[in-house]
């Protein structure tokens, strides 16, 4: 992780050093240089990558299943999201 592999850091105190290190490595004229701060801004705004809930595994499975259908053109994105919402809500209601 870090600037040698161009993977971003997950430690907030290292965001600025990561940005500076990547910018030094790729150069100020690289087309990505002006946008590196977007990675750190979005990283700073996030506190979890996935919501914690009693049916988390089911939620991930449903998203993966529907994503596959959408990518293959067998379902619209909105229909997929609606289906995931309904299926996961039903499981949440059962768990409550």
Tally of helical segments: 4
Number of strands: 0
Overall 3D shape: elongated
* Helical proportion, percent range: 55-70%
Radius of gyration: 19 Å
Number of domains: 2
The CA-CA distance between the termini, in Å, is 40 Å
Class inferred from helices and paired strands: mainly alpha
Major β-sheet profile: none
Q: Tell me what portion of residues adopts beta-strand conformation.
A: under 5%
Mean of residue pLDDT values = 85
Unreliably modeled segments: none
Give helix and strand order, one letter per element, not per position: HHHH
List the helices and strands and how they pair.
Elements: H1 15-26, H2 36-45, H3 56-71, H4 77-95
Helix pairs in contact: 1-2, 3-4
3D structure, described in words:
There is one protein chain. The chain folds into two domains: 12-45, no CATH class; 56-95. The chain has helices at residues 15-26, 36-45, 56-71, 77-95. Helix content is 59%, strand content 0%. The chain is mainly alpha-helical and 96 residues long.
């Amino acid at each position: 992780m870090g600037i040698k592999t161009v993977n971003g850091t997950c430690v907030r105190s290292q965001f600025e050093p990561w940005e500076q290190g990547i910018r030094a490595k790729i150069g100020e004229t690289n087309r990505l240089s002006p946008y590196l701060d977007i990675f750190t801004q979005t990283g700073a705004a996030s506190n979890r990558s996935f919501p914690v809930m009693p049916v988390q595994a089911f939620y991930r499975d449903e998203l993966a299943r529907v994503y596959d259908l959408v990518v293959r053109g067998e379902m619209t994105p909105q229909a997929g999201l609606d289906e995931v919402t309904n299926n996961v809500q039903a499981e949440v209601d059962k768990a409550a």
